[in-house]
Amino acid sequence: MKHFKSILFATALCIGMVSFVGAQSKIAHINTQELIQAMPEMAEAKSQLETLSKTYQTELQSLGAEFQKKVELYDKEAATKTKEENTNRAKEVQTMEQSIREYQQKASQDLQKKEFDLLKPITEKAREAILKVARAQGFEYVLDSSQSVMIMADGKDLLADVKASLGI
């Protein structure tokens, strides 16, 4: 009987260990920034953003040069103009400066919106591919190694598998 209890206890212990090991979550990691940078859609998005940025930059430089010329002209002619004309010119310069600032803010906002609009489908595609690969390989959790500080990363790196899934 004592021998039977020992065997029963050993069996229960083994079953408990197997259950504990089986209950542990499978965790993988991936550098999503590296994945997104490798996607062909990202190169196209960067190109579009650079083109738009250069367009705004050129326009701002043009406005700045025009503003600078006007300020220099008004400074040069200030001695030959009446006080009223100089006051009106100062208001004109201030108005022009304000419109340049407003244009600069609008350009910055437009660039941010365009970046968001271009990156959203790319990040969503990457997310879906990561989920597909992780589920296919039985992972319950996937950590983004580009966003968090990982002290140890012995888990499976899904980057190569996700890239293959996307055809990259």
* Stretches with pLDDT under 50, minimum 5 residues: 4-14, 16-23
Please work out how many helical segments DSSP would assign.
5
What fraction of residues sit in β-strands?
5-15%
* String of helices and strands: HEHHHEEH
- Full CATH superfamily name: Skp domain
Q: What count of domains describes the coordinates?
A: 1
| Classification by helices and strands | mainly alpha
The CATH class name reads Alpha Beta
Can you give a write-up of this model?
This is OmpH family outer membrane protein. With 168 residues, the protein is mainly alpha-helical. It has one domain: Skp domain (Protein Binding, DinI Protein, Chain A, 2-Layer Sandwich), CATH 3.30.910. It is built from five helices and three strands. The protein has a three-stranded parallel β-sheet, with helices on one face. Helix 3 packs antiparallel against helix 4 and helix 4 crosses helix 5. The longest helix is centred in the middle third of the chain and has 54 residues. The radius of gyration is 32 Å and the shape is rod-shaped.
Features:
168 residues, 77% helix, mainly alpha, 6% strand, Protein Binding, DinI Protein, Chain A, 3-stranded parallel β-sheet, 5 helices
